[in-house]
Amino acid sequence: MAEKIQFELVSPAKLLVSAAVEMVVVPGTEGDFGALPRHAPMIATVRPGVIDVHDGGKVSNRIFVAGGFAEVTAERITVLAEEAIPVAELTKSQAADRKRLAKVALEDASTDRERAAAEFRMAVAVAMEAAAP
Description:
The chain has 2 helices and 8 strands. By secondary structure, the protein is an alpha+beta fold. Strand 5 (42-55) and strand 6 form a beta hairpin. The protein is elongated and about 50 Å long. 23% of the residues are buried. The chain starts with a strand and ends with a helix. Helix 1 runs antiparallel to helix 2 (112-131).
């Protein structure tokens, strides 16, 4: 039996996933990274994208996250996500709606803070569109 790492995905509302898995691939802001058992400890920021959970020698679960943080230890990976949605539940129309709203927010932004927030919303919408089946 393959060695396992404990994966926990937490959103602001609740614990979404808690499972022992073979590997987790996370969309880090510095690039995607895989967390395996006995991984060196690290903390990383997570960009909008898809977390691939590997178990049984294949991708067993795909979850879209809208950014956040990941903490990796030798035994566990914990992802604190701003928002998380199973990829199977995403739709192209949902992503298009978000993209349209983000575009309006960008056009209406009058401060640097509003512009940064709107740009982040657009990044989430673009990543969601790419992830939607």
